Amino acid sequence: MIDLTIIIPHYNTPLQLEKLIQSINVHNNVQIIVVDDNSTDNLGKLESVRQKYSSYVEFYCNKTGIQSAGACRNTGLKHAKGKWLMFADADDFFIDSYYDTISKYFNSEFDQIIFNVTSQYSDTGEIATRHLVHARKINDYLGNPSEKNYYRVIKRFAPWGKMIRRAVVEENNIIFSETLHSNDQFFSTQVSYYCKQTVIDGAIIYCITRGKNSLTTVVSKTAYMCHVNETIKCYCFSKNKYSKKVLGYFNYNALLILYDGLKRGIDIKTLLWAFIKLVKGGIPLITCNYFNPIFVYTELTSNKKRYGKDRKFFVEK
């Protein structure tokens, strides 16, 4: 019986992919699926990894004609057999004790388990900033398990650090957006809505790496507008599914999205176009949270810390 399927989209990083595979370890009840997004570099090493791990890793290729981690994940979903799903990025890795932490939930009645994560810089191995927002939300909830703190955790867009019941995904026809960037936002938004029983576990199971040329460090009009468009989709879905009170917990905020673009060096013309789309999409310019000075201070200091350390990794394309 397959308890868990781990789906990994891959593009041009076979060395990091091998590290990730090694961090998963061999378990008879775990299905590992790697879907290559038609890599163009280090093909010799990629073939070496395929041959070395083919006995317990399934390798597929994205044949959709659309270059997208979302398309790769959707390919993986078609081959998934596990009761549970997890997603990992090819340049990240699992913490040594991850299996002991997640396996205790294999026979649980929950639909989604959200775990804590950490991050590190790929060039130095030092603790990075990528996980800080997620960790803060989880710690806030564990310290005060209020309704507001719960919904702030489940709104998180990234698919890593979660274990999701596969039946929920299949029964509700949930797939990833096949865009080049931000393809996980709408998937995660739908999953968190349809998972009626979610538990939040503070154990750290996964490490995100921060380096150049990852999709999260690409600065471009295309990447930014993908984020804007996917956020509008998530907002419209949430507005139709949740009460006004819960929607407020999610803190959809047009000015915050514009501020993010400004910090990333997006040009004024693109920001203006984004502003028009966000307003037409119904996203509030500002939410009541921003009238709370403590909230504003926390958000600004958090953003400053993240952007200050990560700016050197941003790559314009």
Describe this structure in words.
The protein is of the alpha/beta class. It has 2 domains: 4-215, Spore Coat Polysaccharide Biosynthesis Protein SpsA, Chain A (Alpha-Beta Complex), CATH 3.90.550; 221-311, no CATH class. It has helices at residues 14-24, 43-53, 69-79, 98-103, 132-143, 147-154, 166-171, 185-194, 221-241, 244-250, 254-263, 268-280, 293-310, and strands spanning 4-10, 30-36, 57-61, 84-87, 93-94, 112-121, 162-165, 198-210, 218-219, 315-316. The strands form 2 sheets. It has an 8-stranded mixed sheet, sandwiched between helices. Strands 9-10 form a two-stranded parallel sheet. The longest helix has 21 residues, at 221-241. The radius of gyration is 19 Å and the shape is globular. The model has no long low-confidence stretch (mean pLDDT 91).
List the helices and strands and how they pair.
Layout: E1 4-10, H1 14-24, E2 30-36, H2 43-53, E3 57-61, H3 69-79, E4 84-87, E5 93-94, H4 98-103, E6 112-121, H5 132-143, H6 147-154, E7 162-165, H7 166-171, H8 185-194, E8 198-210, E9 218-219, H9 221-241, H10 244-250, H11 254-263, H12 268-280, H13 293-310, E10 315-316
Parallel strand pairs: 1-2, 1-4, 2-3, 6-8, 9-10
Antiparallel strand pairs: 4-7, 5-8, 6-7
Helix pairs in contact: 1-2, 5-6, 8-9, 9-12, 11-12
How would you concisely characterize the structure shown here?
With 317 residues, the chain is an alpha/beta fold. It is 45% helix and 18% strand.
